[in-house]
Amino acid sequence: MDDARAGERYAGERIEPEAPGVGAVRFDERGLVPAVVQQAGTGEVLMVAWMSEESLRLTLETGTTWFWSRSRRELWNKGATSGNVQRVRRVLVDCDADTLLVEVDSPGPACHTGHRSCFYRNLVAPAAE
Predict the structure, then answer these.
(1) What radius of gyration, in Å, describes the C-alpha atoms of the chain?
(2) Is the pLDDT of residue 40 over 80?
């Protein structure tokens, strides 16, 4: 995983360097921050998960995605069981420092249902009666 380099861009804008590590991130009252996971190169939104300070640190250190499971109350390394390990290209933090965008190379399905993305269902307005 590379640190932000001079000239790197996202959404047409220059990426500004941020304080290194987890200290730049504002975690919520539960100690979590939402992380949007996006396929590098294509922009596909693959999933949204939660990161704790420890899972973010592990993500930055190992170059693979680590998350906090709210239901199981434990850390999990994405793909450790399925083999679809997400290799981190970069981690961006939003303007309020309370949401992360994790760009990855994801070799297979990101969703636990087996779909490439967790966003495969379309909501529609209810039929008028």
Answers:
(1) 16
(2) yes
